[in-house]
Amino acid sequence: MPKLSGEVVLPGDKSISHRAALFSAIREGVSYFENINFNQDCLATIQCLQALGVSIETQEHGKLQIHGKNLKDWQKPEHELNAENSGTTARLLSALLVNLNFATRLIGDDSLSKRPMKRIIEPLTRMGANIKSNDGYLPLEFE
Questions:
Q1: Would you say residue 27 lies in a domain?
Q2: Residue pLDDT, tens place only, 90-134
Q3: Category of 43 on φ-ψ map: left (φ > 0), alpha (ψ -120 to 50) or beta
Q4: Which domain holds residue 75?
Q5: Where would you find the membrane-spanning parts of this chain (predicted)?
């Protein structure tokens, strides 16, 4: 597959910012972003990725630099991953956590822990993932 490079100008949208961080984290090499939305939800995604060993540098004015690497090179976090109140973090990150070669646990705050996760648990389980949950709610354990 040819290597992609170039520059794209995107709005500082929360949804795009989450996905930019996650896709860049699994892409080997350095990605640079401007106009990233650093709200609490996006920061939860960034902090979870950092806990997994992805080098991320945040800078002022929405600038972000991510040193992505292959999932096999991610590191087991020292503590539980905390999605805080971000359903986007919990759901999108789960699709990556099922592919790691070590166990991880994903938690969230009280509000997020009351939101159903079956809509991601069921399809991921059908695809072969081993996920334990609190009856379809956080915390989620990936083995």
A1: yes
A2: 999 999 999 999 999 999 999 999 999 999 999 999 999 999 999
A3: alpha
A4: 14-142
A5: none
